Amino acid sequence: MPNHLIHTTSPYLHQHAHQPINWYPWGKEALDRARQEDKPLLVSIGYAACHWCHVMAQETFEDEAVGALMNEHFVCIKVDREERPDVDRVYVKALQAMGLRAGWPLHVFLLPDQTPFYGGTYFHTQGWRELLVQVAKAFREHRAALTTSAAQFTQALMEQEKVHGAVGLPPERFTQATITQYFRQLYPLLDTAQGGLRGAPKFPMSSGGAFLLHYYSLTKDERALAQLNLTLEQMAYGGIYDQIGGGFARYATDEAWHLPHFEKMLCDNGLLLSLYAQAYALTKRPLYKRIVEETVTFVTRELADATGGFYCALDADTDGIEGKFYTWTPLAIRQTLGPVEPLLMQYFGLELMEDGKAGVLYRKLAKEPVGEARIIIERSLDRLSAARSHRQRPIRDDKLIASWNGMVLQGLVDAYNGLGDKHCLVLAGFNANFIAKWLLQGGRLLHSYSRGEAGPFGYLEDYAWVVRAFISLYQASFKERWLHTAAALVQYTLKHFYNEQTGLFYFVEEREANLIVRQQEIDDSAIPSANAVMAHNLWALGALLGKKSYTATAMRMLERVPLHIPREPAHLCSWASIYMLQLKPTPVVAIVGPECTAWALALQQHCPRGTLFVGTEEESTLPLLAGKKVIDEKTTIYVCRQGGCQPPVHSVEEALKQLV
Predict the structure, then answer these.
(1) pLDDT score of 82 more than 70
(2) Do 513 and 499 touch, CB atoms closer than 8 A?
(3) What is the pTM of this model?
(4) What is residue 58's DSSP assignment?
């Protein structure tokens, strides 16, 4: 008989619905039962694309004896971390407070009041059985000690939230010297041989790349550009990037980006799409353009829903083997290609592969092949792709997550701006319509949508990324619907997420806040801080809509962060990027006339970073377009700063001179 997970919307939870464990989803029913029966809660957190989650599910959770132990002594809850990031974030921090390493699958034992007293990650079957017996015995015989420990761990979580109330450096005292000092603190943490941050595993950390790009644009410090190029090249050459089908894996397990953890996540590809597109706009490197084009092809081919949304992930495993779909033996390559061209051997380092051992392809030849060499490489890749298409494909997690769709929407707009590819703008509009139709209900965002059913309501990251993407889509298309929708969503977050005492936003809105801690995250992880993204949104909307209150709120948010920069520079890059926007008056370009969108695109590729755009073909109700008209029946550009505008001009070249 299926357990309680059979009625959920999460594909990951459905994978556990027929196990011999009386799993519940996180919610009132399970929490009430724990209190009524005075049993500890056992919370198991994972996600559908996670290799070690699958291993433990198959080896341990399918075991009848294990199920009997869990059912007898615990109320068991299964959590999809992608569907319930609020639960995941609290108990990841709880594990860290215990001095334990967090990862997935993540397991945490709670008292009936949800306070944590012990946890861990992956356990083999025998170790898990022994742990269950020990924890059950401790709960019976040493309840007071567990209660004391749980209270201490919970207090540690609450103390972390108090840090966010500290006062940092006022924005008006933030200078270029301050940002230079931040770069000096960050630079020793960077891997100057392989790119990214030092050590392994290696995550792309798109916020760090975006900071380097912005810092170089501001200071022309060649070290920042060299590090950005090194990182983008090494990732593009590495096994973390699918050399055959495009798209990035979650992270690399080694320092050289060669050996990926094979799950492909929508969020990572959306963020890297933005970074490579912006880097191409700056450097015009053909490699970056190709990565952008191939990543767009990957997400539309593998993750697109017919309604315009994008699914969240492809599994790491096929047939229970991690990376089976993506790896090749030398024999398989020879069978597919016949006599392998020496150029291809050098390009992928195939001569280094051990006979009979499967490996992932990564690029060894740094020089870009051209002419006949490029044709040989592309022909070989096409044949490998055709052969791979006959393999069993990784399972796709078909949740549609608002924040991750916002990241891809932002990436598509950045691809349009950077490459001038109108197809990307069409895809962006299609995706925005999906979000507005299926994920926006009564002015309130859903976090996810799956198999025709709504998931939980949205978290701060959903509002932050959808708003950011809608602002960007407006500036590319000048369809005011997206700007007004973004403003309405910001108003909602200010009402339901904002903490007046700290000046930051909670991750969960007040009516959904039922966990032991209501968190306000400020650190970048693999995904940039949602609070930092919201600060950027408020800054942009404040300028675009003339809303001084938005600007003031953004400035107050910035005051909360610099105090922590010296301690955690690698995890505050998004905030540093926003601070750089405050160093100079924000240019706003207003374009009126039939060529407004085409001229905006031309300007986007050359204007200073942080420039904002408003435009209309004929008329608009936006404050920044009030009184701005077509002059001499020609499309007209107004370059404005701090409320004052320079004389109107009639060409992109003239406008660029005013922007310098």
Answers:
(1) yes
(2) no
(3) 0.96
(4) I
